[in-house]
Amino acid sequence: MASVTGTSSLSLCLQKERVTTALSSLRSVSFPTQRKSFPSVMVQPMRFRVSCAAKPETVGKVCEIVKKQLALADDATVTGESKFAQLGADSLDTVEIVMGLEEAFGISVEEESAMKIATVQDAADLIEELVATKAS
What we know:
It is built from four helices and five strands. It has helices at 56-69, 91-105, 111-115, 120-135, and strands spanning 2-4, 10-14, 19-23, 29-31, 40-43.
């Protein structure tokens, strides 16, 4: 069995089928081969990707909730790039922030998703994703 590991995009090109597969955020790929010749494997540098960020209104509301939950001064600067740890939040504070966000936006955040939130922008992006899922 062959195994390929990398951190950028990977393109696999099988000669007979001429199939090309692109994988983003590649961590590990394994595939069996019964041929004598191994398919050509080309690792390409990471390409520029545009992702949809949360609306400014959502980010602003999340900033206000974070400031309230952490009892930050009114003149404290909280932006989308602000990390909870840099704002002085510990794990209990983060749980309380998530609970405040759930209440304010009428959503339910799974524990696994909550653990991935590190910045205000992460929280806002997750909220918009959950709100969109709830609406559909």
